[in-house]
Amino acid sequence: MKINPTDFKMLRDFVNEKTGIFIRDDKAYFLENRLEVRLRESGCDSAQDYFRMLKYDNNGEEFDSFIELLTTNETYFFRTSSS
Fold this sequence. Notes:
Blueprint: H1 5-19, H2 28-42, H3 47-55, H4 61-70
């Protein structure tokens, strides 16, 4: 799925505003791939529809699901070094 530059910037800026995570322009494919999953699962037809869903999500569950897909949950920095 390919999203247009305007929709990419709209979603990227929204994610950045809410989480501090910034997705560079050269990583648009990454956002597109993750967005495709959420569009299928949420039943939205377009990036704009999905953006509206995120923006007006009263309980934040959809936004949390989307952010979970965008992030890599690393915990190595909580572990004690063995050396």
